[in-house]
C-alpha cells in the first residue's frame, strides 16, 4: 500500500473513530466522513466490558472514559417476581484484566473523546456534514467519492473502511447480503431519575419475565438519586406514537417498579432490533466493521464493544500490511477472526440472553434459571461464564483463528 495514500473511514461512530485514531496514532493519514453536522448522540448503548476498557488506554482515552463513567463490578439476573436469581462478581477476572468491571458511560462520550484526539493527531482529518457517495477500486488504490459542504470530491485512497451503521451505504455498494432477521417487538428505552439500588437492583441487571422482561443500567448523572436506563419490549400491535407517549411510558415503568413511573424521565425512545451479519466483511480494498458488518440485540452489551474490537483488530492488520505483510492474507484473516467470533459468540450469546429472559414455557424457564443459579454458586463455573459474558473469551478465540 502506498504510504502517501490516506485511509477513508465512512462513519464517525465509536467503531469508525476507534479505527481512525488507532491508524492515525500509527502515522497513517486518515479521513473520517460523518454525515451528521457533529458526532451523533445515541443514548441506547453505554456499557463497556473489561477488554474494551483496556483498549481505551491504547487509544489514548482510557483515563477520560473511566473518569466520566461508573464502574460496575457486579451484575444480576433476576426474575420479575422471585427477585435475584444469580449475581456475578467481575472481581473473579482480576487475574485476566486490570479492569474487572463493566464501565457505564454513554457511547457518544467515547466518540467525542476519540474526536478530541485529532488535536494531537494532525493526520486525522474529521469531516462533518459529509456523505459517502461511491467508490471505484483499482489494483493499487481506491477512489472514494464523497459529498460535503464544499461539494463533491474524489479521494485517492489506500483503503475504504465502512463503519457507517446498520444501513451502511458502503456495504450496499459492495453488494453484500446482510443475513439474519428482525425481532418482531421493538425496544422502549427510558432514562429515569430514580434510585433502583434501594430496591436491591445492581447497577446492571437483567430481569426475566414471560410477558415483560427488562434490562437496566445505571448511567452517569450529577448527584442523587442517579439515572437508571431501562429497556422494555413493546409488542408489534402497539403503534409508535402510543409507545412514545409519556402516559404509556409511565404506565410501563410503574408496572416494573411502583413509583418509578412518577420519576423524571429526561429521555425515552423506541427502536427496532435486528440480528444480522454481513456475508463477508471485505471486498478488495473495502472493509466493514461495527454495525455496518453486524448488528444484534443489546442484551449482554456486545454490539458496541464488538465495534471497538473490530476497529483495533483491523488497525493492527493494516499496520502489518504497511510493514510488508500480505494484504489479501491479512484482511481475510480479519474477516475470519471478527466474522467468526461475531457468529460464534456475539450473535449466539445475545440471542440466548433474550430467549432466557422471555421464555414462556414454565418448565424450560425453571430449568434455565436453575442452571444459572448453579453457575453463579460455583466459582469455577462463574469464572468461565464471566470470561464469555465479558468478551474476553471471544477475543482469545479470535486471536487463535489463523
Automatic annotation (TrEMBL):
Ranges for domain FAD-binding: 6-347
A single GO molecular function term of this UniProt record: oxidoreductase activity
Organism annotation: Microbaculum marinum
SUPFAM superfamilies: FAD/NAD(P)-binding domain
Protein name listed in UniProt: NAD(P)/FAD-dependent oxidoreductase
Keyword terms of this UniProt record: Oxidoreductase
Gene3D superfamilies per the UniProt record, alphabetical: 3.30.70.2450, FAD/NAD(P)-binding domain
Source taxon at top rank: Bacteria
Amino acid at each position: 500500500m502506498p504510504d502517501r495514500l490516506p485511509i477513508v473511514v465512512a462513519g464517525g461512530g465509536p467503531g469508525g473513530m476507534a479505527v481512525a485514531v488507532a491508524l492515525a496514532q500509527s502515522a497513517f493519514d486518515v479521513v473520517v466522513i460523518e454525515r451528521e453536522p457533529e458526532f451523533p448522540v445515541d443514548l441506547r448503548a453505554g456499557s463497556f466490558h473489561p477488554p474494551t476498557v483496556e483498549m481505551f488506554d491504547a487509544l489514548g482515552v482510557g483515563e477520560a472514559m473511566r473518569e466520566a463513567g461508573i464502574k460496575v463490578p457486579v451484575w444480576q439476573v433476576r426474575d420479575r417476581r422471585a427477585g435475584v436469581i444469580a449475581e456475578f462478581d467481575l472481581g473473579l477476572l482480576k487475574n485476566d484484566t486490570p479492569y474487572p468491571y463493566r464501565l457505564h458511560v454513554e457511547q457518544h462520550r467515547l466518540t467525542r473523546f476519540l474526536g478530541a484526539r485529532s488535536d494531537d493527531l494532525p493526520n486525522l482529518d474529521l469531516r462533518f456534514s459529509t456523505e459517502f457517495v461511491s467508490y471505484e477500486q483499482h489494483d493499487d488504490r481506491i477512489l472514494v467519492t464523497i459529498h460535503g459542504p464544499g461539494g463533491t470530491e474524489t479521494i485517492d485512497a489506500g483503503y475504504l473502511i465502512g463503519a457507517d451503521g446498520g444501513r451502511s451505504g458502503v456495504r450496499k455498494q459492495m453488494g453484500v447480503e446482510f443475513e439474519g432477521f428482525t425481532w418482531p417487538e421493538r425496544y422502549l428505552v427510558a432514562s429515569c431519575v430514580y434510585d433502583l439500588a434501594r430496591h436491591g437492583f445492581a447497577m446492571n441487571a437483567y430481569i426475566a419475565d414471560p410477558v415483560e422482561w427488562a434490562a437496566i443500567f445505571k448511567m452517569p448523572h450529577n448527584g442523587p438519586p442517579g439515572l437508571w436506563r431501562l429497556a422494555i419490549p413493546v409488542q408489534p400491535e402497539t403503534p409508535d406514537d402510543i409507545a412514545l407517549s409519556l402516559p404509556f411510558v409511565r404506565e410501563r415503568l410503574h408496572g416494573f417498579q411502583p413509583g418509578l413511573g412518577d420519576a423524571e424521565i429526561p429521555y425515552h425512545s423506541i427502536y427496532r432490533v435486528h440480528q444480522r451479519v454481513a456475508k463477508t466483511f471485505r471486498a478488495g480494498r473495502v472493509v466493514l466493521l461495527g454495525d455496518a458488518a453486524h448488528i444484534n440485540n443489546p442484551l449482554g452489551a456486545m454490539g458496541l464493544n464488538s465495534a471497538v474490537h473490530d476497529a483495533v483488530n483491523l488497525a493492527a492488520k493494516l499496520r502489518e500490511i504497511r510493514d510488508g505483510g500480505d494484504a489479501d492474507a491479512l484482511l481475510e484473516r480479519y474477516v475470519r477472526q471478527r466474522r467468526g467470533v461475531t457468529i460464534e459468540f456475539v450473535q449466539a450469546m445475545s440471542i440466548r440472553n433474550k430467549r432466557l429472559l422471555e421464555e414462556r414455557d414454565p418448565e424450560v424457564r425453571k430449568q434455565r434459571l436453575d442452571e444459572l443459579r448453579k453457575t453463579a454458586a460455583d466459582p469455577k463455573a462463574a469464572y468461565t461464564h464471566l470470561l464469555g459474558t465479558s468478551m474476553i473469551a471471544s477475543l482469545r478465540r479470535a486471536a487463535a483463528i489463523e
